[in-house]
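Retro notes - structure team

What went well: the batch runner handled both jobs without manual restarts.
What didn't: labels got mixed up in the shared folder, which is why I'm recording both outputs here explicitly, each with its sequence directly above its tokens.

Job 1
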Amino acid sequence: MADIEKNLADVRKRIEIAAKKSGRCADDVTLVAVTKTHPAEMINEAIDCGVRDIGENKVQEILEKYDKVKKGVRWHLIGHLQTNKVKYIIDKVYMIHSVDSVKLMDEIERQAEKHGVSQIKILIEVNISGEETKFGIAPSEIDEMLDHAKALKCVKVCGLMTILPKIDSGISNRLHFHNIYNKFVDISQNKYDNIDMEFLSMGMSGDFEMAIEEGSNMVRVGTAIFGERDYS
């Protein structure tokens, strides 16, 4: 059984150290506790230890856990989202990290209007490495997505998200993080309408310190908090 309190203390300390290396403090980095496959009881224990942001990969898991988890937390959908499932979580999540098409963006807008959600925060998922097995758009497609978002009323683009390939070396991973941070800064300086570059979501249990050092201000950490996932 994972010692969630101890693990969270360790993760927070590591975030603090990494943030200092990048000239920031721990409060500048949002920790999203990724609860994939873990039961509501473990999530509630993490909430008791101060966790306020919960990340789930699948719509079905949000629906199964939503009423069992303590209130007052912000739910994040961080996994791939199909357009036909947007309607199930549009009024439950604080942010959708994995928007990778104009079609999905339009469906989120449509469902938000239908369900009376005045604003839904999204991140554009960028496949920074070009790995074919990863979701996300190419960096060259970001501007098209941002241009499309200008006219939307409910959808608010609040930043970028990326997942690194598992096969790259540490050096090239750091470069991927660095490159997407530079893109994040460029967009911030361009002052797009309806675009607020508030969050750069990158870094998971195996690389969140490196990601923070390279500019990430939102990390998605699961295994380092809750232990190995149970897929049985």
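Job 2
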Amino acid sequence: MLEPGIKAPAFQLPDQNGEMHTLEEYRGKKVILYFYPKDNTPGCTKQACGFGELYPQFMEKGAVVLGVSKDSVASHKKFEEKYNLPFTLLADPELKAIKAYDVWQEKKNYGKVSMGVVRTTYLIDEQGMIARVFKNVKAAQNPEQMMESIG
């Protein structure tokens, strides 16, 4: 995992509408960059809906929410529409940001070992530095946890 106090890795990824986003365009705002395993799974849905419910308060505090998974743009679009998500979902099927942020790791599931995205949330400050790292977060509690962490 990356540590607080270092510059957050740059990225350029398409959102659920196919529009490109870079970390640089959010300079001057706090960025909640959360990595999750898969659209439309129970935990990921709870996490996304939680961020959706709190999104107006995040905006009031000068923060943006960006969700990242290896799902496609089309998958993200369906996920956004199904749950009326008000924030940006970034598609990273080539694992560029996922690997840059060190969240592509070995996982064990019922004794089977495989590679996958470890649910992790980064708080990036207004200058593009990593302020906090939340590893192996609990999906349902993560949005509230992030609200508390940005003050």
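One thing worth noting from job 2: Residues 42-60 form the longest helix (19 residues).
We'll revisit the folder naming next retro.
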